[in-house]
Amino acid sequence: MTLQWAAVASFLYAEIGLILILCLPFIPPQRWQKIFTFSLWGKIATYWNKAFLTIIVLLIVLFLDAVREVKKYSISHGLEKSSSTNPSAYEHVQMKLFRAQRNLYISGFSLFLWLVLRRLVTLITQLAKELGIKGVLKIQADSNNDAAKKYMEENEKLKQALEKTGKGDEQMTDAENKKLMENVEKLKTELKKTSDALSKAHNEVTSMKKQSESLSKEYDRLLKEHTQLQEILAKSEKKKDL
């Protein structure tokens, strides 16, 4: 094996090793993303695209050269086989054909695995980003759920206080209570939807964004209702004192 083909074979073994390491199941994508953000990788990344394209061009040239050698020695192998006058020449051509085929396989697999390695690194990086977004959305949804439950409890207390006074504006109180119950039912529905979306967050990150926005709107609406109820309760207490 010549020096150039020995280098290509070593490169092929290195590619196989890197792909196996990247596919290890006990190393999460977030850990790989942290590794890729090291300062050393940052310096390499500036030349990564140029090096990637350069290696592709070299492997394509070697692959085409191997194809040419295989065609060349295949024809010579057929001619030597048909004219069996010189057995040593036939064996020499057969050995050349074997080497050409070996070089063809080495260059072809090296080119294929190089493309696979590039795609694998890209997918790992994208998966790590999606998982990070999922974690942030989960934290936001949990905080919104806690705040919504808190305001639900406070609204229930305010409702009971309004019912005890009995001297407020009954029509306004009934309307506010009806609206409050509707908002509570809506909020319960949104909480249930959010809980279901969180269980499928790894496949539905976009859906979780919409769900979180909807829950934030309901949270703002419920906060307004809470403020209005406090105002009504204050008015009722003032009327009672008078």
TrEMBL record:
GO terms for cellular component: endoplasmic reticulum membrane. Residues 183-241 form the Bap31/Bap29 cytoplasmic coiled-coil domain. Plays a role in the export of secreted proteins in the ER. Residues 195-214 are annotated as: Disordered. It is found in: Endoplasmic reticulum membrane. Its main location: endoplasmic reticulum. Pfam families: Bap31, Bap31_Bap29_C. The chain crosses the membrane at residues 7-27, 47-67, 104-121. This is B-cell receptor-associated protein. It comes from Sarcophilus harrisii. GO terms for biological process: apoptotic process; endoplasmic reticulum to Golgi vesicle-mediated transport; intracellular protein transport; protein localization to endoplasmic reticulum exit site. Belongs to the BCAP29/BCAP31 family. Gene3D superfamilies: 1.20.5.110. InterPro entries: BAP29/BAP31, BAP29/BAP31_N, Bap31/Bap29_C. Keywords: Apoptosis, Coiled coil, Endoplasmic reticulum, ER-Golgi transport, Membrane, Protein transport, Transmembrane, Transmembrane helix, Transport. It is a multi-pass membrane protein. Residues 1-129 form the BAP29/BAP31 transmembrane domain. It comes from the Eukaryota.
